[in-house]
Design goal:
single chain, about 350 residues, alpha/beta, Rossmann fold, six-stranded parallel sheet, about 45% helix, binds nicotinate mononucleotide, binds 5,6-dimethylbenzimidazole, Nict_dMeBzImd_PRibTrfase_bact
Length: about 350
């Protein structure tokens, strides 16, 4: 059953001072590694060490379908969800390529894809499928709750269980689900009190008329679920099975002191829900990029997050998280391996 796990704060003034001292005494002008220095400090704080090393990085891609998709809120049909899951597993999707390139173990979770995906044997290191289906897609949120409270709790518990079974100390988040930019927009509007107009965008590629129709459907969803104001109620009423599973994964990863690498608009929505349940999770998140999807900039503001990259990505899948991964790896290596002025015999500031 779902219970919010205890999440330790990263607060440790002695460690923070030690990390800052190490960073400031590396052989470089003070602050010259810019935001990489911020990342070095944060990863050290999350892992609780002044010699951080990331090991066995896990890419978790949660997939599900959405009743709302039947209302024409996406440029693509729901069938693309299961077809892309097959593509992830076959190694041909963007996230498959990037995970392979960077040695990220790819786990794809069927959290409620409309067409059941067959679980099959995977060679060691190859993408693997975990089946934690709640149902064959959610209900249409424009006419009532997307899922029941029990389904929502089960999806949260599933996300926690998946992470408990994964090795390593860093979790990268990804997702797949036709219609799920609508879910993210609804959660942003409800939980961060952002005007719906600022939350709704093109998703997979709607034109202006399509976006206007999507906005009208999403307003109906907010009206049909007006009483769902708390984070768990909003997640059940407006959410998706993949978003709820990711929310559980975030809570569990934070409780285990893992570094959490957040991808785009939809994974950020899962973090938003998790942060409303347990604000300390944000200390353990690194935001990979600012998505090109309208709404993500507001989402990042609501989370007070500064992402690493801004490349106009709007794919999802965890592709942005995978692209940002080398920066995290570099931050750790620089902290561990770069010489200090003293060790290298280089003159410090002022001689
Ligand atoms: O992560 C993002 O920022 C992002 C922005 C736009 C689209 N997506 C992906 O596109 C799908 C959702 O788009 P849509 O138009 O069907 O709501 C879903 O599979 C997401 O992975 C993802
Ligand atoms: C082809 C395609 C690939 C995706 N990957 C994530 N969301 C997606 C949506 C579409 C439509």
């Amino acid at each position: 059953m779902f219970v919010i796990p205890p999440i330790p704060s990263i607060e440790d003034p002695a460690l923070t001072a030690r990390l800052q001292h190490l960073i400031d005494h590396k052989t470089k002008p003070l602050g010259a590694l810019g935001r990489l220095e911020v990342l070095m400090l944060r990863i050290g704080q999350i892992l609780g060490t002044d010699a951080p090393a990331l090991h066995a990085p896990q890419m978790l891609v949660c997939a599900a379908d959405h009743g709302l998709a039947a209302r024409g809120v996406s440029a693509y049909p729901s069938d693309v969800t299961w077809q892309m899951v097959e593509n992830f597993l076959a190694g041909g999707a963007a996230v498959s390529v990037l995970a392979r390139q960077h040695g990220l173990q790819l786990t794809v979770a069927d959290c409620g894809v409309a067409r059941e995906i067959a679980v099959r044997e995977a060679a060691p290191g190859a993408p693997r499928l975990v089946s934690c289906r709640i149902a064959a897609g959610t209900q249409d949120a424009s006419s009532g709750p997307a899922m029941s409270a029990a389904q929502c709790r089960q999806a949260l518990a599933n996300g926690m269980a998946i992470v408990r079974g994964l090795p390593g100390n860093v979790l990268l988040l990804g997702e797949m689900g036709i219609g799920n930019t609508s879910v993210a927009s609804l959660l942003l509007a409800r939980l961060a009190d952002v005007a719906l107009d600022d939350c709704v965008g093109a998703g997979t590629g709607l034109d202006a008329a399509g976006i206007a129709r999507k906005r009208a459907v999403l307003q109906q969803a907010l009206d049909a679920n007006a009483a769902a104001t708390g984070p768990l109620a909003a997640l059940a009423a407006l959410g998706g099975f993949e978003v709820a599973t990711l929310t559980g994964a975030v809570l569990q990863a934070a409780s285990e002191r893992r570094v959490i690498v957040v991808d785009g608009f939809i994974t950020s929505a899962a973090v938003l829900v998790a942060a409303r349940l347990a604000p300390q999770v944000l200390e353990r998140c690194v935001f990979a990029h600012r998505s090109g999807e309208r709404g993500h900039a507001c989402m990042l503001d609501a989370l007070q997050a500064e992402p690493l990259l801004d490349m106009g990505l709007r794919l999802g899948e965890g592709s942005g998280a995978a692209l940002a991964w080398p920066l995290l790896d570099s931050a750790c290596r620089v902290l561990r391996e770069m010489a200090s002025f003293e060790s290298a015999g280089v003159a410090g500031p002022g001689g």
